[in-house]
């Protein structure tokens, strides 16, 4: 792949990186029509990069067939209107197969989920990502980093071997650690995406991020886009006004160790009549008494 294509991919990452939900039908299967409608709503709302098979899409509850379906639906609906960053993970052969499938469909980038194995060495982290990146040299690769122990120097080591590692979704909830990690890895070498969404976006942008992930964007694309425009122009007071607007919604998602991270987003969408509220275990739908608060927040945004 030419460097020009990677430049296009890098530019696409410096944005609101939407993580679409995966809506389920009454019988528990993926609701393909609702999924397409939600994707169209994101695209029509101005979103320019989509991550099928992200955590907000309940990646770990989907079967291999469902993950392929979600990727296919997303690529079809987006066409040339948005860049596609396909989430891949699990064991190396599974991740490689998913990445190759994404490339065959025309996606130009993959996001590699943080390895969930209980025993992760730093050198082993490099080996895992190297195996995936080397299998798809034509695709841009974006590691999703949630491991606070990982050193930025390890990321630099990975990119020395794999020039297609072009960006990072950094999701350790520590702005000082992010600033140090990015500088150890190479601030200008990668596109830094704040991987903890709107609540962390202002502090991470101040340290060098140029994009942020979002689940909230499923509900109110204009809110997320307003925040990134403020951050791009360096208007932190304006960005913090949006932060205040979304604070309670994100607190509900983060409560109890993020138990309701996806649940709250789907509840908001359900309150707007856009999809069912159903989530798969180990997530669970909200109790009745908490649904009204989510609906009220969603109704209050200028959607």
Strand order of the largest sheet: 1-8-7-6-5-4-3-2
Strand composition percent: 5-15%
Q: What percentage of residues falls in helices of 4 or more residues? A: 40-55%
Q: Indicate the mean pLDDT.
A: 96
Task: Look at the helices and sheets and give the structural class.
Answer: alpha/beta
Low-pLDDT regions: none
Gyration radius, in Å: 18 Å
Determine the N-to-C terminus distance.
39 Å
SSE blueprint:
Blueprint: H1 3-13, E1 16-18, H2 32-44, E2 49-50, H3 64-78, E3 83-88, H4 92-105, E4 109-112, H5 122-135, E5 140-145, H6 152-161, E6 167-170, H7 175-185, E7 191-194, H8 197-206, E8 211-214, H9 221-232, H10 236-258, H11 261-271, H12 288-300
Parallel strand pairs: 1-8, 2-3, 3-4, 4-5, 5-6, 6-7, 7-8
Helix pairs in contact: 2-3, 3-4, 4-5, 5-6, 6-7, 8-9, 9-10, 10-11, 11-12
Task: Give a description of the structure.
The protein has 303 residues and is of the alpha/beta class. The protein contains twelve helices and eight strands. Helix 5 links the parallel strand 4 and strand 5. The protein is globular, with a radius of gyration of 18 Å.
Entry keywords:
eight-stranded parallel β-sheet; 52% helix; 12 helices; globular; alpha/beta; 303 residues
Could you write a compact summary of the structure shown?
By secondary structure, the protein is α/β, with parallel strands linked by helices.
């Amino acid at each position: 792949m030419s460097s020009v294509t990677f430049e296009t991919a890098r530019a696409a990452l410096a944005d609101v990186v939407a993580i679409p939900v995966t809506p389920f039908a009454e019988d528990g299967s993926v609701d393909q029509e609702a999924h397409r409608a939600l994707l169209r709503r994101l695209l029509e709302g101005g979103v320019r990069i989509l991550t099928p098979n992200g955590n907000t899409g309940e990646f770990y509850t989907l079967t291999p067939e469902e993950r392929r379906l979600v990727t296919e639906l997303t690529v079809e609906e987006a066409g040339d209107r948005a860049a596609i960053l396909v989430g891949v993970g699990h064991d190396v052969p599974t991740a490689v197969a998913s990445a190759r499938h994404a490339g065959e469909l025309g996606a130009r980038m993959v996001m590699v989920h943080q390895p969930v194995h209980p025993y992760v060495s730093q050198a082993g982290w490099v080996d895992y990502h190297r195996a995936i990146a080397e299998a798809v040299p034509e695709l841009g690769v974006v590691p999703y980093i949630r491991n606070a122990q990982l050193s930025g120097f390890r990321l630099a080591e990975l990119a020395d071997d794999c020039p297609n590692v072009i960006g990072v979704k950094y999701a350790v909830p520590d702005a000082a650690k992010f600033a140090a990690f990015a500088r150890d890895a190479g601030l200008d070498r990668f596109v830094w995406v704040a991987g903890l969404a709107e609540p962390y976006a202002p502090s991470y942008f101040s340290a060098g991020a140029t994009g942020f992930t979002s689940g909230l964007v499923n509900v109110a694309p204009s809110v997320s886009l307003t925040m990134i425009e403020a951050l791009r122009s360096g208007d932190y007071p304006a960005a913090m006004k949006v932060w205040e607007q979304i604070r309670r919604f994100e607190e509900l998602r983060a409560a109890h160790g993020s138990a309701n991270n996806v649940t709250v987003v789907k509840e908001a969408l359900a309150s707007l009549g856009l999809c069912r509220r159903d989530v798969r275990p180990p997530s669970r739908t909200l109790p009745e008494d908490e649904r009204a608060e989510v609906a009220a927040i969603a109704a209050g945004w200028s959607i």
